[in-house]
Amino acid sequence: MKIGLPKGLYYYYCKKWVYFFNELGIEVVSFDTNKEILELGNNVATSEMCLSLKIFLGHVVYLKDKCDYILIPKLNYGIKDQMCSNFDCLYDLCNNLIDIKILTFDSKKEIKNFIKIGKELGFKRNEIKRAYLKASIKYNKELKKLKIENINKLNSSNKKILLVGHSYNIRDKYLNEIIDIIKKYNVEIIYSDLFDDDYYFYLSKDLYWKYSKKNVSSVIFCKEKVDGIVFLTTFPCGLDSLVNELVMRKIDKPYLNLIIDDLDSLAGMETRIESFVDIIEQA
Amino acid sequence: MGNYYIPAKYLLSHIVDADIIIPPFITAKTIELGSKYSPDFVCTPFKYTLGTMIESLEQGASILIQFGGGCRYGYYSELQEQILKELGYKFELLNLVSGKANIKRIYKMIKRIDKKFNIFKGLYHLYIAKNMVKYMDRVDDYIRKNVGFEVNKNSFDNLNKEMLDKFSKVNNPISLYILYKKYFHKFKKLKINKPKNCLKVGVIGELYTLMEPFSNYYLEKELASYNIEIKRFTNVNYLLFKNKKTIKKALRKSKKYMKYKMCADASSNIYWTKYLCNKKYDGIIHIKSSFCTPEIGSMPIIDKIANNYNVPIIYFSFDANTSEVGIKTRLEAFYDMIEMRRQ
Fold first, then answer.
1. What distance in Å separates the CA atoms of residue B118 and residue B15, rounded to the nearest whole number?
2. What is the pLDDT of residues B40-95, one digit of tens each?
3. CA dihedral of B323, B329, B335, B339, whole degrees rounded to 10
4. At what angle do helices B76-86 and B44-58 cross, to 10 degrees?
5. DSSP state for residue A193 in the 8-state scheme
6. Is the Cβ of B75 closer than 8 Å to some Cβ of chain A?
7. Is B302 found in the same domain as B168?
8. What number is the average pLDDT over the span B306-333?
9. Does B266 reach chain A within 8 Å, measured CB to CB?
10. Of all helices (H) and strands (E), which one includes residue B173?
């Protein structure tokens, strides 16, 4: 049996599930983003949707004939840890626009829903529970390792840049072309999505988006230690339009605000990044 | 937002001892001011509210109150406070956004403005203000249905103004109720020339753009001038008191199209689309401010429902510099189309 996980939006927050399905012996199908997928997404999406959502829809269309089910959950962490409103309508959007079989659940009671899904696929309760535990242990170990690695970069003697953005933008293979440009210049890149959300309170008291909290607290944590901050946003992102603006107004570090609309012309981005790195190196 | 400043002013002026400044009506200057200091791709209500804030600060206000919640509307106030402080204004912003608007917090805030505040008096006037909103919305519903067919021009508008003027001077719930009954009777007596099978159009969409007539370039007035009966669901009474109930109902009644609750009014809008289609309305108009994320997510689903029921639907997206003429032309074409479908 094959389950498709579209590699966009929620995928980067739910790597645990990949391990879970592997543990049960189910094959997980997902592809890296490429130009074809983006074009497929553009065909389905309406013009005002954000680039990340377009990429996600493209993945779903691309996976259509390549697997038995596609998993699209609703991420739900309560009122104080909200997700972007695009996450709320993912399931209904795909269900109405694209003709596929979808597995879905509400992530508020994760284990309960996993058992439900597992039973639907024909597994026993014990098997599912064991697989879930194994997967979460493996996932937590890996995450811890990555976090320590990320923080250790702060001690390096090179110039350091903090990259602030949502996981689905920084980790995406296709959008990574921009990060590759930064990597050319011998600087350490510290990722904002590997921080805990402990410090956001010092900068913004009202903040209620789960993953924006991480970004803001990463800025506070690294403010003194890094040389510059790069904000990476896809075009009409609702959360970043407000949160990043507030952060930019409150910090006094050199920063660069990169807004991606489409990746057709990278020359302009290259020039901006080059001059930004020049500023950092002279300071 | 529209005429709703009247109950708000009534409530504040009765419970606290402070001068209340009603911001001037939104004009082209307001939106120009607002968009000058706003971030790049924020939704349009941010620009309107920021512009209004600047204008009322220039009139001498020292305390601003922000009330809201739902989508990113709940986060406006923090950024707006920062922007205004960088511009050099001195003020205090009372922030009653969702998640923070509990009774204790509101009580403390009011106590800070006015030390003589009495909670029972406050609740009493809150009750009156709540009823006032309810009655206003009922009257508005009636007006929207019939204003397109009035015989004497502006008769509805003038009577509405007279009623609101009387409303702002009441001081107990019973006299308010009597006034409401009296004026509703008067409204019903106004001469109208309404054919039995008139054109009916439902208006749905994002809340701010729907309720602030300037931000949608007086779309409802324009529609009324074509002799159309208008149905609109979104009003303050719905937003404050009926929201949760409606969303539950929406999830139950339109299971085929949606499974999970969506952000803000998106799920209600999907339900209303289905309702309008079932009631055989001639057309649906969906309006929103540009970059409104919840509505963008729901639009493809709304489109699908309208297609399934074969009801024409038109989308308007309003920004700070949308041209008024373009919207009028599109509206005229839409009107011609639904009229031809009738025949």
1. 8
2. 788 888 888 888 888 888 888 888 877 766 777 878 888 888 898 898 888 888 77
3. -170
4. 50
5. G
6. yes
7. no
8. 87
9. yes
10. helix B173-189
Residue A151 lies in a domain: no
Cα(A257)–Cα(B292) distance, rounded to whole angstroms?
22
ipTM of the complex: 0.88
Q: Give the mean model confidence (pLDDT) for residues B30-34.
A: 86
End of a domain among B178, B193, B208? B193
End residue of a domain, out of A122, A144, A166: A144
DSSP codes joined into one string, A215-262: HHHHHHHHTTT-SEEEEEEETT-HHHHHHHHHHHHH--S-EEEEEES-
Question: Which residue of chain B has the CA closest to A247?
Answer: B79
Give me the amino acid identity at B282.
Answer: D
pLDDT at B101 (0 to 100): 61
Q: Which domain holds residue B234?
A: 195-343
Answer for the pair A2, A66: CB distance below 8 angstroms, yes or no.
Answer: yes
DSSP B195-262: -TT-EEEEEEE-HHHHH-TTTTTTHHHHHHHTTEEEEE---HHIIIIIHHHHHHHHHHHTTTT--SPP
Residue A273, C-beta contacts closer than 8 angstroms, at least 6 positions apart: A178, A181, A182, A185, A256, A258
- Residue-level pLDDT at A122: 82
Q: Which of B35, B41, B49, B305 to mutate to test the interface with A (most CBs of A within 10 A)?
A: B41
